[in-house]
Description:
alpha/beta; globular; binds NADP nicotinamide-adenine-dinucleotide phosphate
Amino acid sequence: xxxxxxxxxxxxxxxxxxxxxxxxxxxxxxxxxxxxxxxxxxxxxxxxxxxxxxxxxxxxxxxxxxxxxxxxxxxxxxxxxxxxxxxxxxxxxxxxxxxxxxxxxxxxxxxxxxxxxxxxxxxxxxxxxxxxxxxxxxxxxxxxxxxxxxxxxxxxxxxxxxxxxxxxxxxxxxxxxxxxxxxxxxxxxxxxxxxxxxxxxxxxxxxxxxxxxxxxxxxxxxxxxxxxxxxxxxxxxxxxxxxxxxxxx
Length: 249
Ligand code: NAP
């Protein structure tokens, strides 16, 4: 088995995923940066990692496509000899109030955020089992999955489901030393929030955040870096919040 731990970050090309990819590479992990549409962003992230002395490759697949996920995970293991850390970060939001919610939007949000994470976990599980105490599964949920948010019923349901999945898989994989945890960011400055966290809505939000500011992707990445480390081996089934105090308790 190759010496270097290997990590897959789904949606690792932009925003929070990009920061996670960079943080794990800085720790010395070989990082696979997944994306689905924007190849340029994935190449840029890989370039930033290699320029800093790290090692990464970009890999295109849609997490909602189970067959594509299976092929991708097999390719990662064929090329790198192992898979130790999986970060289910890929996510989308299609917002809208209940009365106008379209079935296809509900399905797509669940497919990417929740079923996609299951596809990746299932395909990766037997490789994580081989990694034993080095194995880490980390799911990126959201503060709104814990407290709800008007106009985001599909996204909230998917993120709450991801917390349930984290707890179930933590119990299922614990006997082999693999840990499964979730990181729950509050509002973070990325393309996802750029569209709607603006103007008066932004001011209202800031007033509700005890730390008085939106989070940075690097701050979420730090939480993931810690949970992915060998030192975090006795933490499993937990939700680590990184939300500026927006939800406490
Ligand atoms: P983002 O800037 O919109 O980036 C999303 C990433 O996911 C991109 O790399 C994108 O790749 C990838 N992606 C989207 N659909 C995919 C699919 N079907 N298969 C594979 N990759 C896919 O989002 P972000 O704000 O960084 O959010 C990252 C994660 O954190 C998400 O799970 C999100 O729900 C969660 N989160 C975000 C916030 C926030 O405030 N930003 C708060 C709480 C939780 P392409 O570039 O190829 O499209």
